[in-house]
Amino acid sequence: MDFAFDTVTEDLRERLLRFMDECVYPAESAFEEQAASSGWGPPPLMADLKDEARKRGLWNLFLPGEHGAGLTNLQYAPLAEIMGRSPTIAPTATNCAAPDTGNMEVLSMFGSPWQREEWLTPLLDGEIRSAFAMTEPDVASSDATNIATAIVRDGDEYVINGRKWFISGAMNPNCKILIVMGKTNPDAPKHRQQSMVLVPRDTPGLDIKRGMHVFGYTDADHGGHAEIEFRDVRVPVDNLIGEEGGGFAIAQARLGPGRIHHCMRLIGMAERAVELMCRRALARTTFGKPVAQQGVVQDWIAESRIKIEQLRLLVLKTAWLMDTVGNQGAHTEIQAIKISTPITVEWILDKAVQVHGAGGVSQDFPLAGLWAGARALRLADGPDEVHKRSLAYRELKGYM
Ligand SMILES: Cc1cc2nc3c(=O)[nH]c(=O)nc-3n(C[C@H](O)[C@H](O)[C@H](O)COP(=O)(O)OP(=O)(O)OC[C@H]3O[C@@H](n4cnc5c(N)ncnc54)[C@H](O)[C@@H]3O)c2cc1C
């Protein structure tokens, strides 16, 4: 078993690390200041960072195949980890941010030539942003078969009625297109009732109601999380992605890579937390010795290092499986990392916050925001309990 990265990955890692040191970390405080006054749009300095990343060949690294950089999951994993060290800036600057990544994957896998031309091309160029609208306030959406939004064919058009919330990125005025999941045929078998349609954000009847908060954060620099009402929203039938009844299968295909990307970035967040924890523990003295010499703090640091190494190995194994046996063959591992990574990184961030004292919960360190992000990822893309249920079921099947 060879644990070394290949030469392509090593080269990109070095370039990405340099980009982080020279451009991303130095921009963090100005980014925060601009974000406070730039409404739901991206802080102005993001445009320069995108230009710079593109010039350095650090663009669309997430996307395998002809439309993207063509990396494997195993090659992309250590790069996403590096981006995760500054998760509000680096993924967007390199055009590797959710939910665009998943949406670009859907369009590249299932989009018609017209849909790719119209929406995939500007997304790949980083000219526009996008959103993915599945979750609804009125039904338990962790069971996607509950999704109730109606998509009804009327001649050459679909008419959409329903309400969605927590639609990431949709508050951003630069978000031009939404992939909307709803029911085209409530009488079909359970997993064939759903379809996905492309809905331009400026379509009449699409009403952005408000931005949902996450532990009090608006996440405006990510484009927020919108509550949206669809009232008699009409789109041409050409906006259907794939076939009628294929929405559930597309949602499953979309979530595999999305989940592993979240986990890779979370490991980067954990590395950042450990670095901050060590620096702070060495810099502060209580009761006659540095905080770093307190046994309990050393225990947190050691446990954090062990947990990160364990997570990284499982995430890399999952990436390798996705490359070699496909997303379906890696299903158990994808669920295992989606369960174990956010909760473990949440634990590490909690300890880093504690070592920072009051500063840890404040705006002077990135820890509070990182913690909120990790905690929210125990819900986004499916709650822990739902993944455990399905993982346990597959395990039990071997003995039934
Ligand atoms: C920050 C953030 C961003 C998001 N972005 C998007 C987005 O861009 N697009 C989108 O469509 N959605 C998005 N979501 C929504 C997310 O995908 C849903 O919140 C999630 O799927 C859960 O659905 P729900 O909130 O309706 O919870 P419910 O389905 O109501 O479930 C509530 C709870 O019930 C428990 N539960 C459910 N089923 C089981 C079970 N079988 N066994 C045990 N316990 C169970 C779990 O604890 C679960 O958390 C986002 C959420 C957050 C927090």
From TrEMBL:
Keywords: FAD, Flavoprotein, Oxidoreductase
GO cellular component, one term: cytoplasm
Protein name according to UniProt: Acyl-CoA dehydrogenase
Gene3D superfamilies per record: Acyl-CoA dehydrogenase/oxidase, N-terminal domain, Butyryl-CoA Dehydrogenase, subunit A, domain 2, Butyryl-CoA Dehydrogenase, subunit A, domain 3
Occurrences of domain Acyl-CoA oxidase/dehydrogenase middle (ranges): 131-233
Subunit structure: Homodimer.
Co-factor requirement: FAD
Domain named Acyl-CoA dehydrogenase/oxidase C-terminal: residues: 245-394
Family per similarity comment: Belongs to the acyl-CoA dehydrogenase family.
Domain Acyl-CoA dehydrogenase/oxidase N-terminal: 10-127
Source organism of this protein record: Nonomuraea jiangxiensis
GO terms under biological process: fatty acid beta-oxidation using acyl-CoA dehydrogenase
GO molecular function terms listed in the Swiss-Prot or TrEMBL record: acyl-CoA dehydrogenase activity; flavin adenine dinucleotide binding
Presence of keyword Oxidoreductase: yes
